[in-house]
Amino acid sequence: MLVVDDEAVIRQLIVINLELEGFEVHEAVDGLDALEKARRLDPDVVTLDVMMPGLDGITTARRLRADPATSRARIVLISARTRPADLEQGRDAGADEYVIKPFDPDDVVDAVRRLADGIS
After folding, report:
1. Ramachandran region of residue 94, left (φ > 0), alpha (ψ -120 to 50) or beta?
2. How far apart are CA 76 and CA 43, in angstroms?
3. CA distances (Å), 8 to each of 3, 14, 25, 31, 61, in order?
4. Do residues 77 and 69 touch, judged by C-beta distance below 8 A?
5. Of 26, 59, 20, nearest to 45 (Cα)?
6. CB within 8 A of 91, min separation 6: which ones?
7. pLDDT digits over 38-90, tens only?
8. Of the four listed, 14, 22, 57, 96, which is most buried by Cβ atoms within 10 Å?
C-alpha cells in the first residue's frame, strides 16, 4: 500500500487510518517519489492526491498504468475536483476509485479495502 500526498497532515491521516486497519503502508510526497517507490515496493493499492506540484495525480496514475512494473497496482484518486469531467479524467487515467475531498477517513479505508479484497 502506497499513500501519495504532498500535504503531510493529510498523508498522515490516511496512513494512520490504513495502519489501524492492518495495512502495511508506505508514503510518497509527490508523483515522482510515488513512481520510484511503486517500482521498488510493488504495492497492491496506491492512493494518489490529484493536485500535487510537479507531477500531479492524474499524470502519475497514467504513468503507473503504462509501466509494466507498476501497471497491476489498483489506484484510488483523492481530490476536491468533483465535476463530471474531472471524474472522467480520473477513470481515463486508470483510477479504480475516486474519493472526494473533504473526505471521511473511512471512505478512503473502504475504497482501499474494496480494491485490496479484489486482488486476493
Report:
1. left
2. 12
3. 11, 10, 14, 14, 20
4. no
5. 26
6. 98
7. 999 999 999 999 999 999 999 999 999 999 999 999 999 999 998 999 999 99
8. 57
Write out the DSSP string of the chain.
Answer: -EEE-SSHHHHHHHHHHHHHTT---EEESSHHHHHHHHHHH--SEEEEES--SSS-HHHHHHHHHHSTTTTT-EEEEEES--SHHHHHHHHHHT-SEEEESS--HHHHHHHHHHHHHHH-
Core vs surface per residue 29-59: b (16+ CB within 10 A) or e: bbbebbbebbeebebbbbbbbbebeebbbbb
Predicted structure pTM score: 0.96
Share of residues in the chain with pLDDT > 70 (%): 99
Closest CA to 58 of 98, 8, 11: 98
How far, CA to CA in Å, does 59 sit from each of 6, 86, 89, 105? 15, 13, 10, 24
